[in-house]
Design a protein that fits this description.
The chain is of the alpha+beta class. The chain contains 11 helices and 16 strands. A hairpin with an 8-residue loop joins strand 12 and strand 13. The protein is elongated and about 80 Å long. The two termini are about 20 Å apart.
Length: about 325
Amino acid sequence: MLKIRPVQLKDHAEILKLAHIAGIGMSSLPQDAEVLQGKIAHAVKSFEGKPEKKGEEKFLFVLEDTEKKNLVGTTGIVAHVGLSRPFYSYKLSTITQASTGVGIYSLQQVLHMVNDYTDATEIGSLFLHPDYRRDGIGKMLARCRYLMMAEFPKLFSDVVISEVRGVQDAKGDSPFYDNLARHFFKMEFKQADYIYATQGAQFIADLMPKYPIYVNLLPKAAQEVIGVPFEASQPALQLLKSEGFQFEGYVDLFDAGPTMQASRHNIRTVRKSHKAEVKAIREVESDPHMICNTRLKDFMIVGGGIKIEDGGVVIAPDVADALGVKKGEMVRYAP
């Protein structure tokens, strides 16, 4: 059985392996043992309800193959971004320029560096081992975060965002970064991404220009990838769209990948989830559902059949065991 559970301190070595497989460009899963250890420790405290600062919970889940006893994926939620560490984006907007004297009217696209998503909830850290990219496993790993938001709404913002990885070449370099930010950072994309993942965003504020950037002054290679996702990230983008996320013109500062946005209460899985009492535990036949318990500290999610009965639900014994629930306890589920 595949089970999604909170990360534990003992998971460090296996998650570091997954981070190396994920490669450059996934700043939420850094290839740095010490920094990753800190992220795991922060997540453990968040699940215990004891974050260092209230509102700055960071939840990291792992996908465990319980038969092989190994970890094959990760996914996570940052409860509120930008509260103690700036969260920067580029906002793509259009301005009008006109001269009645010479009869010229033009529309220009510009990029503004903004902090508009301060306090938003961010989903990220989504990675699935290539061997498990089948049978809807990735979809479940992505959607489990919305089940948590439905169960614990007070922990999260009304605005939920997801940064989709932008275009990179075969060497892992970003055309957008190479033609813009590199002029100010004086370093390779991989190094800048690593610093952001391990040390934070202060160097962005220190070095990047604060003035609007006219898109048509950028090289063609940079213009063409603004708001365009990396090819390997297309499935993740489609999943976000299916849940109701939309592109509102915000892009990543480094690779110009699109930032997708949704209202938490309008996310499809949140809307379609239900909470019910376990009336019985026995084998059931039904279409597969995502099912979770309702405890923050050991919040578990599995896939399995569920049957509505006597004002509650019936779940299979293996599902009950994986979730650690008994008859009379509550579960939340979504199709």
